[in-house]
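step 3/5: co-fold with adenosine-5'-diphosphate
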Amino acid sequence: MISANAALHGSYDYSEVARSVLIAIAASYGALNLTGRVTTASGRVRLPWLSGGAVAMGIGIWAMHLKAMLAFQLPVSVAYHWPTTLVAFLVAILASAIALFFASRQKMGRLEAVTGSIFMGAGIAGLHYLLMAAMRLPATIGYSPLLVACSILLAVLFSLIALLLAFGLREETRWTIQRRAGSAIVMGTAISAMHYTGMAAASFFPSSPPDLSHAVNVSPVANNGIAIVTLIVILAAVMTSSVDRRASVEIQRLNKDLERRVAERTRQLEAVNQKLRNEIAERERAEEGVRRSEDRLRLVIDTLPALVWSKLPDGSADFLNQRFREYTGLSVDEGLGWGWMRKAFHPEDQTEEEWRAAFAAGQPFEKEARMRRADGAYRWFMHRAVPLRDELGNVVKWYGITTDIEERKRSETALQEARDRLAHVTRTHAMGELAAAIAHEINQPLTAIVTNANFSLRQLISSSPNLAELQTAITEIVNDGTRASAVISRIRALLMKGALSRVQVDINEIVEDVISLLRNELTRNRVNLRTELASNLPRVLGDSVQLQQVLINLIMNAIEAIRFSAEHSGRLVIRSGRSADGVWVQVQDYGPGIEPELAELVFEPFFTTKVEGIGMGLSISRSIIESHGGQLSLVSSRQGALFEFVLTVATND
Ligand code: ADP
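step 4/5: write tokens
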């Protein structure tokens, strides 16, 4: 018989207690795992994770309590009112949902933590006391208010710890199995502690048999079944969450990898872009530079103090610079093509055929032609053209410059006139020196004529004239007269500045004439003249008076050299001969000769070493010979000076 006032003595089946703690730890482990999943889930998948997690956790907590209550054995049979048990189960799920909701938030401030833990603690405590209320046994339950309060406080406190742990560990990637398991043990033990505190608050007093409607007995098989199903559900939840976590970690890794690659590719593309931008800027700068230098070049070409042009290979102009157009007064259209010649050249210089031939020859060339200025005046110009060729050597363009040579032309003409005048002066000068010789030449025949005329007169007035002698005397008079007249006409020819003639002349004859002219001079200066003239020389084309003048200059220079030489050897040799393409004449004296460094200087106008010299003799002689197409030069010789001139043979000889 059991006393009505004595509390029933309950005992614990410790193996069941251990199992209930195990389930609590497993449920906590699951809760920690699921918090992470709920945290990372967003949008539509968040709700399934939250509710699935809440169910799994709820089952765990509920089962743990149920198990713990079943571990408590009383000496009476205990049944459970299943609707209340079911409500307790729903409360467990609700508490789990609240816990998951708070723990999975982005932030958890103090207020959230406290609120969450109060709700969760209340849920767990509610679950516990609902299960107590579901008990159907022949006893009434009395509660120690202090311990009940303690158990509720513990429930809230442990909920707070659980929330903080779950929140702290929800970053799944940083989790380690040990930390998670450790936290789960703490949480599981805490939940169990709360439960057993709650149990300690209850005392059972025997009473009448309970109302067993809707009550069920939990058989050992059902007890174990609940434990196994709970563990399977928790395991399934943990596995699902871990697979999902791995998948999401993998996705995160792939995402990061992708992001890294995209970032790298973006960097590369940006570098390429930058390079392209730099290149474009560089090219734009270069093009700008080319444009500017082209402008500068055009400005230079247009303002150059020269007439510049370019022409097509056939010679028709495709560019005339501004100066050219300004000078000629031609418009661009008028000057292009062959307008530059037809509209600007002097009519006499419009030798289009010659110009076309020069362009066709493809070699650089220069031509002189007069061009009309815008005011109508003509001036002489030098037109120089240079071809530009392609890699095959074909002319693609002509470039040229047209330079004003009017002043040069004028001074050339003036110089030529001055030369002519000087030539005349020197001839007169030479003749002056020859005056005595000429006088002697003429005096001789005149004296003879006078002598013979007197003799003839005497014969004529005598009673018996000697007719034979008379005839001889008159014949001599005629001969002497003729000789004097020849001398006179030669001198006249020399002194006359008349127009040049080009006739076939015998050079030996000219040498002989000059020698007879200078004979007296040679004698006076005791010059020993020797001639070595080649016979049968071909004739040359020339002006005999000019050629005589050259010879007179050379021989007079030789005479002077001999006169001033110390030795007075007095030898003078005049030679003539035939060369490959002409006839040569040499005048050699054996005087002091000419220093080699003066060899070319002596031909310069106004070069003289003589006190009374004018230095034009050799210069004029050279230009005379060159105007005959020949050459006059100083030939090196061992003694004295040796001058030689060569003349080309007359082709129509
Ligand atoms: P010029 O006789 O008036 O000096 P030339 O032109 O005839 O002018 O001669 C120039 C110079 O050449 C002479 O001053 C002289 O120094 C030199 N020269 C010319 N011929 C001879 C020569 N046969 N021997 C030495 N020197 C000569």
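step 5/5: annotate
Residues 553, 557-558, 561, 589, 591-592, 594, 602, 607-610, 613-619, 641 surround adenosine-5'-diphosphate (CB under 6 Å).
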